[in-house]
């Protein structure tokens, strides 16, 4: 039993698991913000552009309820027991997904840019910004096409 608990501790306390847990919590909070953005800002603007149509109230009645149609809102249809195809809610979800995925893309892109900057700084620190000339064995910049010391032409194969 102690062995299983020990293995579990090793698993749960690994950096990747903790990073994932933090990501899930932040992602859930971000999804709440995005949902609010869609329902409280984007949907009303869309409603103004479409003469007051609320995305959440776009639906098709597949089977009428006890009192019958017309139903002004999705809530009215649901209260009457109508079977509906609520494509407006799907549109809200698609918009939310697009917003979340766009911001996730921007965040990953920004993080990758920061990592590249850190890698470049490490390369400079470790001397990986240079390569050796095959002719005079001097250290030249890794992107150089000609050796500054012996003026030999350098190829991409020089390391």
UniProtKB/TrEMBL annotation:
Presence of keyword Transmembrane: yes
InterPro entries: Mechanosensitive_channel_CS, MS_channel, MSC/AndL, MscL_channel
PROSITE patterns in alphabetical order: MSCL (PS01327)
Location (main, coarse): membrane
Transmembrane segments: 21-49, 87-108
Keywords in alphabetical order: Cell inner membrane, Cell membrane, Ion channel, Ion transport, Membrane, Transmembrane, Transmembrane helix, Transport
Its membrane topology: Multi-pass membrane protein
Entry function: Channel that opens in response to stretch forces in the membrane lipid bilayer. May participate in the regulation of osmotic pressure changes within the cell.
UniProt name for this protein: Large-conductance mechanosensitive channel
Natural source organism: Endozoicomonas elysicola
Gene from which the chain derives: mscL
């Amino acid at each position: 039993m102690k062995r299983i608990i020990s293995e579990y501790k090793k698993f749960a306390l690994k950096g990747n698991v903790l990073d994932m847990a933090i990501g899930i919590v932040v992602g859930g909070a971000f999804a709440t913000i995005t949902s609010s953005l869609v329902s409280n800002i984007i949907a009303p603007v869309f409603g103004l552009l479409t003469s007051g149509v609320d995305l959440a109230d776009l639906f098709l009645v597949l089977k009428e309820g006890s009192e019958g149609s017309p139903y002004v809102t999705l809530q009215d249809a649901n209260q009457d027991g109508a079977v509906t195809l609520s494509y407006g809610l799907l549109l809200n979800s698609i918009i939310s997904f697009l917003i979340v995925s766009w911001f996730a893309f921007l965040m990953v892109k920004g993080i990758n840019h920061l990592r590249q900057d850190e890698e470049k700084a490490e390369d400079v620190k470790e001397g990986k910004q240079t390569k050796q000339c095959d002719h005079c064995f001097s250290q030249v910049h890794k992107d150089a096409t000609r050796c500054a010391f012996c003026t030999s032409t350098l190829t991409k194969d020089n390391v």
